[in-house]
Amino acid sequence: MKGKRSTTERIAKVALEILEQEGPQAVTMRRVAKAVGVTPMAIYHHFPSREDLLKTITDAEFDKLLNFYHRRQQRDSAKSRDAKLLGLMDGYLDYAFARPQVFDYVFSNPRPDARRFPEDFRARQSPTLTPIADFIAEAMERGQLKKGDIWEVALEVWALAHGYLTLYRGGRFNLSEREFRLLFHRSMKRLFHGLKP
Q1: Distances (CA, A) of 176 to 93, 163, 181, 183
Q2: Which domains does the chain have, with CATH numbers?
Q3: Which of 22, 37, 91, 122 could form a disulfide with 26 if both were Cys (CB 3.0 to 4.6 A apart)?
């Protein structure tokens, strides 16, 4: 059992490395099997399909994204509510800059297992949106934001961050990463101002 688990882990690790370096189209069962040192047929004992392999490695990536969120939250724990929400969104930016190919695959490419608004999000199945929604809900409860649909407001905040990142990753900004982050912060602050009572 231990040997199977370690082979499964090696397969996932190699697939993630290929995804990070070259994107999802480069992740093939044959290529991963060769890199791990197993036969192309043997890999199917660990993952029934390429889609299952990609789902396994991307599911693990959501945990890594949450670590980026938590690091930012700990760093910004003594700051204002606006700064804390900016910090949370900075965690999203941090992840996108640290793992660009994986970010593009997870958040910008169609995937059959991707969570969808509104059902999956309202059922708290989105590891990305749920912490933002919890933050929004708390701010609304304290009277720091206008009352409204928590999930729609959280989606609006997330969509702004995602839109900026997608445009930046697509080469639509002639800005350094630092300049881009400052522009993003200004935009988020304008959004927050409009959400205040």
Answers
A1: 14, 17, 9, 11
A2: 1-48 (1.10.10.60), 60-195 (1.10.357.10)
A3: 22
Q: What is the DSSP string of 124-163?
A: T--TTHHHHHHHHHHHHHTTSS----HHHHHHHHHHHHHH
pLDDT of res. 86: 87
Of the candidates 138, 184, 194, 191, which has an alpha carbon nearest to the alpha carbon of residue 162? 184
Quick one: pLDDT at residue 149?
Answer: 97
67 in Cβ contact with 32 (< 8 Å): no
The whole-angstrom separation of Cα 15 and Cα 33 is: 9
Q: Kindly report the average pLDDT of the chain as a whole number.
A: 89
Confidence bin at 1 (pLDDT 50/70/90): very low
Identify the sign of the CA torsion 172, 173, 176, 180: negative
List all residues 6 or more positions away from 126 whose beta carbon is below 8 Å from its beta carbon. Answer: 115, 120
Residues above pLDDT 70, as percent of the chain: 93
For residues 114 and 107, give the distance between their C-alpha atoms in angstroms, rounded to a whole number. Answer: 9
Task: State residue 3's pLDDT score.
Answer: 54
pLDDT of residue 4: 57
Structure tokens at 79: 């700051």
